[in-house]
Amino acid sequence: xxxxxxxxxxxxxxxxxxxxxxxxxxxxxxxxxxGLRHLDDIIGYVLILPLVILIFNFVKWLRxxxxxxxDQIHIRSGIFVRNDCYIRFQRxxxxxxxxxxxxxxxxxxxxKFDTADPASKGDRVLTALNKKxxxxxxxxxxxxxxxxxxxxxxGTAPESxxxxxxxxxxxxxxxxxxxxxxALLSSKIGVMLAAVxxxxxxxxxxxxxxxxxxxxxxxxxASLVGLIILIGAAILLLWVASLISILxxxxxxxxTVFDTEWRIHRGVWxxxxxxxxxxxxxxxxxxxxxxxxLFGWCTIYAQCSGSIDSENDDGGSVIVFPMLRxxxxxxxxxxxxxxxxxxxxxxxxxxxxxxxxxxxxxxFWIVSCSILAWRFDWGNYALIGLPxxxxxxxxxxxxxxxxxxxxxxIVVNRWFAKTTTITRRNNIQSLTIKQSFLQKRLGLANTLAxxxxxxxxxxxxxxxxxxxxxxxxxxxxxxx
Amino acid sequence: xxxxxxxxxxxxxxRQRAIMTHLIFWLIIGGFAVCVRFFDWPHFLFYIAGAxxxxxxxxxILYVFLFPNINYRTFFYEIRQEDLLxxxxxxxxxxxxxxxxxxxxxxxxxxxxxxxxxxxxVSVTTAAGEHEIPALEERDAxxxxxxxxxxxxxxxxxxx
Lengths: 480, 160
Description:
The structure holds 2 protein chains of 2 kinds. By secondary structure, chain A is an alpha+beta fold. Chain A has helices spanning 12-37, 42-63, 101-105, 119-122, 131-152, 162-165, 176-186, 189-206, 209-221, 224-250, 290-295, 329-336, 351-375, 385-398, 437-442, 466-477, and strands spanning 65-68, 72-77, 83-88, 94-98, 108-114, 124-130, 170-173, 254-257, 261-266, 272-277, 281-288, 297-304, 318-325, 347-348, 401-405, 408-414, 418-424, 428-436, 444-452, 456-465.
């Protein structure tokens, strides 16, 4: 049935204008008004801002209600612009329950619904909820979904009872030893260093001048050995701190595999219970950092479509298991997600492609060194870096490879960590071949496969033989 | 279906667009130079203005005289049974396949320049990104749009 072409209601002009104005006024308007009046005493400004935020949030809370019925949940929100959101239970892909120490003391949890919308707007979060209530909603959602899937398969298997599906296929638990290994091998010193430098730059404002002057003068007088010990101790401290943060994050990690979904439980202080439907998985990634590679471990990630927690530190991908022996990998994959399981042997890229890729950074370094050497005396010494760049490039490029097997495309890339990506033909949204003039001469091409995870993800194979690129192209085109 | 090229008038449109941006940049650079001259701005900014002007002339040469012809020669698109193939690029040649089953929507767009030449830009959106055919005859564009939306209907088993 078709409808006539129609405008929105006339008032749309005003309501849109109002919401735009509001989003401008809230941050600037209050600041302006109070800033003008209390320009000289900032204390008043500092006090009034939290109050405004508090009142704003109180009104928001007052206007935010939810109710659920047989097959949908209805969330009302919005202060000036009323927002009514109906979510059908069957459209909810997963329900996440989250909590942290503070919330747990009060017996409150966060509940999040994942729908197919992009992550930016799709998340519907009930920020604070009674734990019992949350569990009840979660149970209701899975009950309704189970019923529906039963209805759908009634023709073929009418007997299948709901509770049978709830029997987990397999349960993986992160043992203490592995947790320790994970913490030891993947602690991020770099992040911690950045945090400390950030604090140090802030410290300028916090610490009075005379004390800082004294501490700096102390540093100037300290001997070189003392300085080295100091730096060493600082790095050790940072490393321990990052170790502990990983222990807290991945403690009690438990992956439970069901027929159609995964349940992941993790965290010591901030516990997270997450459910992911396996048919949402677009790609599986196996990551090995250099240390992990040395000891034969790897970390498994999954790229899922739909909204994934964007504040997740894993950049939108779901961590399936943090620490796995490489030899356990085939077995693990075929239990957890059989679609993506299979051989992992890959084909190496041709030698000239490695040389081609190393040439770029090397040329850049040589040119910038020449400029430096021309302007400064010490410029020549910068050339010492060249062998390091070449060696680094060699190892990085040599470990890149690719493979096609049946319906799967496997791509191995390395930035610092080696990442093996497995995706399937019907998860690839579009495939691109790129070839520059020079590459044409060398018979090389780049291939890029785009998949849709929580955001757009592009996996690229750089500089592979042109004929292999064509093979992949044909493989993608001859679907069905 | 055989490879199809863009409408040849697109070359003129690309040139006109490039000239417009070129003129706008001259205005900006001119304003900048006048500011340096009449306010007490440091003198070395003149060199920056000069460098910008040189870049602007380079842009004129590349985007008005060189690139449109090359791009017209490299660009083609091909509608097959199940997918759309687009080749594009100037120095780096890109070929992209988009299966119709992955297409989420088809958009047509027509700015003032395109409208004057009775052309339409068609862009095809998948769940991950957008691909554009910059100029088609209005008739062809509508046909392509309808064809794709037919094909989407035929293949509803989108596995996303």
